[in-house]
Design brief:
By secondary structure, the chain is an alpha/beta fold. It is built from eight helices and six strands; from the N terminus they run H-H-E-E-H-H-E-H-E-H-E-E-H-H. A six-stranded mixed sheet has the order 1-3-2-4-6-5.
Amino acid sequence: MEIDALEKDLIECRRCPRLVAWRERVGHEKRAAYRDWNYWAKPVPGFGDPQARLLIVGLAPAAHGANRTGRMFTGDRSGDWLYRALHRSGLASQSVAVSRADGLELDDAFVSAIVRCAPPGNKPLPAEKDACRYWLEAELDLLRRVKVVVALGGMAYSQVLRVLVGRQVSVPTPRPRFAHGVEIDLRPAGPMLIASYHPSQQNTFTGRLTESMLDAVFGRAIELLVGSR
């Protein structure tokens, strides 16, 4: 119920005028392939198991993906990759994510992002990331069992570290640079943090990120969760 209450507050957020204008413009103009859709066109809440020990953090909703469907990583190719990997890892009930009503459920995992509105060009401004930080912090307050965080992409990795530092978690100095598979042990005050390339088309089409690489990240996350209940 706490997560539900947070979701209701989040979808009313209008803190960033540029993002509000863009998400609503996209929802009005639509893409031809989705002309019959009633776009969500609001901030997108996190999705998953409120008792999750694994938190997955991405960048932001895609304009015609989550901004259309209203669920994180749902309705675009990045989400196709992510939920297939979660399904193979036993964390998702199905490998397909097309809408909020498709029956998908996550077990011991929760999917979120550092920015909740679709940004133009998938590039949020620093001030927009700062303004949206509140929602990720609020989720962390409620997801009390999180032991492992997987950050998808360099921006998510950096922002997660900033949030954890703000929560008095000690981070190694110098701070490890982002790279696929990098791990930072922030226990006992914080979680284990694992970095992964984002499953964007830029990475998956070029082979920079393969399905086996993504599977390895979630396999490692599950290894770290064993015995942590």
